[in-house]
Amino acid sequence: MNNQRKIEQLEKSFIAIDEQLELFEKQHSSTIKNYLKSWQEELDALTERYKKSEKSAQQKYDETIGDSDPNDQNNIAYATHISGIDYLAHKKQEDIEEIKAKYSDFLDLFSKSTLIGLYSLNENFLSKICELSSQTFAKKNKAFTF
């Protein structure tokens, strides 16, 4: 006696869509991880690039302040200007924001393309279900009626 259950065509379709959705999820997850890793690597490289410049600017600041009163606002402003510390901090923040905008755009575009892909997959699956159910139950089902 054979106790194996026969898998119907409609059930095969559900199994196939489940596999495709899992594939979409893995691809999405892997790509997002890759983008985030690249983002962090770029930020780390930026920080490393600025370390040497910031150290040099700090030395110049310390030399400029020298023996003068370190609490005098004029001395602080002059040393900050001469050393370029304020410029470096501003430029570094601009570069960080530029990287953030770039990767935010990457992530946004990728998410939109994934959404479009999922929509297309679901639309095709709905059409297939309607076609199979029409054949199975001898009823006219069309996807656009939903």
From TrEMBL:
Domain of life, per lineage: Bacteria
Residue numbers spanned by region Disordered: 54-73
Basic and acidic residues compositional bias, start-end: 54-63
Name this polypeptide is given: Uncharacterized protein
Lineage: Bacteria, Pseudomonadati, Bacteroidota, Flavobacteriia, Flavobacteriales
